[in-house]
Amino acid sequence: MGALGLIGGGLMGTALIKGLLKQGYPADTIYVAEPDPSRRQLLAELGVELFADSQGMLGALTRRKADGVILAVKPQNVPEAVAGLNLAGLPLLSIVAGYKVAALEALLPAGTKVLRAMPNTPALIGAGITALALGAESGTAEQAWAEKILRSLGRVVLVPESLMDAVTGLSGSGPAYVYLLIEALIDGGVLAGLPRTLARELAVATVLGSARMVAETGEHPAVLRDMVTSPGGTTITGLYALEEAGFSGQVMKAVLAAAERSRVLGEKK
To answer: CA-CA distance, 107 to 78, in Å (whole number)?
Structure first.
């Protein structure tokens, strides 16, 4: 197991480190560049090697057997974070939202092996799903390395980069839609007379259980919905209220709107 470089020690970078440590990745083989002293202080508790800048981290990393480097900074900080870097043949895995492979390649020496990934926030508890796209210079070896790293955050799916905006609209932004649904279910329970703590417990368990039913049975969601929808019953009455308000169409519009916003932001790079 070779050493690993990480540029950026924010929430997602920290989640990645914790996931790798849980998988048995030695802390002293993880090299992190993080300019914020307060973040470095938090990361120090994990036992990883810390540096104030990318150049210093990469210099130390390349003095030992290394597997690759992960870029986990905010989009506006990318040019500064990679300026003047020569990865010495190491692959670069970017988890920067909206930053295209071509835009990164333009900032790095010719021939740099760049991969792009889009994790989502459930990765913070190891329950995420990450879409991975390969750059033109990356092959099976780089793909295998990236998948191994990203599995510390949850599941990994391989997609062409052309689908990354759609991925962002669905799984990248999707957790927020689910949180909004959970919040609405809780408020609905309160409106119907339930104590808020009980409404929260019921709503969270209902969403978790329903998602597991879809995942574990393999049935189409419509089939599972029909299982609990009796003629003239409570469920069909609730479903009618949702559809009268355009629930399904509005969710689809949200995915499309977020995907389009991702496309626009990507074009600005």
So the answer is: 9
239-262 per-position pLDDT tens digit = 999 999 999 999 999 999 999 999
User: CA-to-CA distance for 235 and 247, rounded, in angstroms?
Assistant: 15
Structure tokens at 252: 């689809």
Task: Give the amino acid at 223.
Answer: V
Using a 10 angstrom Cβ sphere, with 0-12 exposed, 13-18 middle and 19 or more buried, the burial of residue 208 is: exposed
**pTM (two decimals):** 0.90
List pLDDT tens digits, range 98-153.
889 999 999 999 899 999 999 999 998 889 999 999 998 899 999 999 999 999 99
For helices 11-22 and 37-44, the axis angle rounded to 10 degrees is 10
**CA atoms of 68 and 148, how far apart (whole Å):** 12
* Domains identified in the chain and CATH numbers: 3-161 (3.40.50.720), 172-266 (1.10.3730.10)
Contacts of 75 (CB under 8 A, 6+ apart): 96, 97, 98, 99, 265, 269
Please give the C-alpha separations between residue 38 and each of 9, 70, 76, in angstroms, as whole numbers.
10, 21, 20
Interaxial angle between packed helices 247-267 and 234-244, expressed in degrees from 0 to 180 and rounded to the nearest 10: 40
Token representation of residue 222: 């419509």
- CA dist., res. 54 & res. 109, Å (int): 15
